[in-house]
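We modelled the chain as a single entity of 465 amino acids. Its sequence is:
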Amino acid sequence: MGSPKVVVIGAGSMFFGRQVIWKMTRSEVLRGGTLALVDTDAGILRKMVRLARKVVSATRAPLRIEASTDRREVLRGADFVVLTFADRGVYFRGVDCEVSAKYGVRMCSGDTIGPGGIFRALRAIPSALACARDVERLCPDAWLINYINPTTCLGIALMRHAPNLRSFALCDGHHEPYFRERVLREVGVLGPQEPLTAAHERKLDLAVGGVNHCTFMVRFRYDGRDMLPAWRRKVAERAAKESADEAYSKRRFNNRYALALMDIYGAYPTAVGHTKEYVPFWQGYSTSPPDLPPIDIFSAAQRAELVAKVWAEIDDYNAGRKPITHFLENMRSDHASDIIENMWGGLGRAYYINSPNRGAVTNMAPDAFLELRCDIDMHGPRPQPFGEMPRGLLALQQQVLDTHELTVAAAVSGDRGLLLRAFMTDPIVNSISDAKKIMAELFARERDALPAFWFRRSRKPKVRV
């Protein structure tokens, strides 16, 4: 049936733009198709199109490149539409985290939970649903894939408010098969260069899941043996070597935080750089000496520096200062493009997807939007059996889900009463007055990135669920 048309809305994404170019020029399943790049910033779009055409030329791939600042010009005929845009994402994450920290709410990432995650959802959901309406009109049979944080909020918004479309959501963590290979290498089952084989898979019983960025390894057995004790020993070894010298807030003391969470819940947090900001333990509330330091605040300046380095490298490729062979040798595919290849080619591989639970976690609702290992093809994701979510973790998962559901409801209604309820359901917000102050300041500082309906004086709050 030929190769697919893939539309990328937000071609300048650091986590997807370059990777999808690399993948679609190298994959036998995808290279005969069409890659349509969309970005509202014409300068960024020109850079990405030039890079794409240089890679196409170098690989001699029969890949067609389309581009537009208006997504509606390229959506017709699309088989996959990937949402990966952000409006001044680094800047506003910095604002979210700076303002929240003034009122005692500490976020090391600020893109999923806490006031940062909530306001990022308020900024992104209206645009995502506008894209969904265009997809429904122009390419209704396409798969709409959300790759924007907070991915659970965006995924829930598409599930609830664009129910006629085929959609799911992704995160760049748990990238298979690398995730399972790393897990088995950590405990010595696989050697440093040994590949994961079907024989290994048959002996492996690994249950990892939960709400995105709050996922836990609740079961890890290999050949009938419980491997969680061995995993804990590895985490403890790394924790003993950690220092405060790590530059990035998402990485600092992660093994120490992970070890503490593992001992509390009996399960390992697989996205600890995020999960440590999902719990109140390291928010600085304690009146006793802390067992671990409060989490460090996200630095927009550090993140901006990293993004600038990526764009400098793209400029070097486009100007010929760095050869395209370097790009081809050093880039690799990402989670989303591997999944697209697998779906279109019917390759039969399993991936971690954010989608409705559908009974995989037996003690959570069928429509609970969870990140679970799924079988996936052109019919969509089907979560593999997980079992029960352990008590304790179950409460945390439901609290996070309720926060996300309330955030979506607020984002589509402009209801400030619902927004306050989302804040007060959030696991790291512990003061009503502080929540109101954070909301007020973020509304004032982010007004030009939020829908106008938030600022209509005549609008009366209509709190509902």
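As a brief sanity check on the tokenised model: The chain has 16 helices and 13 strands. The longest helix spans residues 114-138.
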